[in-house]
Amino acid sequence: MRRRRGTPGPLPAALALLLAATAGCAAPSGAGHVSSRAGGTATAVAPAPPPPVVGHVATDDPVVFLTYDDGAERDPRFIDLVRERRLPVSMFLTDSVMGPGYGHFARLRAVGANLQNHTLDHPALPGLPLAAQRAQICGQQRKLAARFGVRPRLFRPPYGRYDTTTLRAAAECGIAAVVLWRVTLEPDGHLTYAHGPHRLRPGDIVSVPSGEAPPLTLAERTTRLLAELDERGLKVGRLEDHVGVTPSPSGA
Ligand SMILES: [Zn+2]
């Protein structure tokens, strides 16, 4: 694509269309049909390949990944903990849940947390039409971009449930990986395991669901988990560095 220097004149129509298309989420369906007559530079818009679904990270590094869901709990002590322990945690956020607490998550982000996509409204996605799934996923991409200036690359479907339409929608919304989990940090601070051995292993992804009036605060639960990680010689890794980092064939 040519770039003109110094002359911020009106964009040629074809270029403007192309820019609209590469804006991905923001473009309504149909924007993928880009005419490539102008200038002769044919850019076929191939459908984005479905993102990988990751439930465990293959790594020999002694790391596990902490992922917090929904955004219902806004524990100020948790912000202190993330800052003091330099925890690169991932927050999978649902707009209708986190909505009143944008400031809390902005502060979390400022101390090292990364913000990821967990839909606008937390519906069960399987069986919903493509447009509805796109609205949930792309819609949350737009919200997070508008509120925080971030463009998440990771997506967690509500309840860990998805279908092939979910993967297509996620790809079209610019998602690089769909993230599930093997381990859950329960509201009382105990760990449960969906499958496999009942102990933490390198590469494990730990989900921390939002609790309603949980017996332990988010900071307390996380502190308990960190003590267990220390015992096992494990550290908290940055999920974004391990999943969805393979080069995207679309180059987008
Ligand atoms: Zn959730």
TrEMBL record:
Residues 62-252 form the NodB homology domain. Residues 1-26 form the signal peptide. Keywords: Signal. It holds the Pfam family Polysacc_deac_1. It comes from the Bacteria. PANTHER family: GLYCOSYL TRANSFERASE-RELATED, SECRETED PROTEIN. This is Polysaccharide deacetylase family protein.
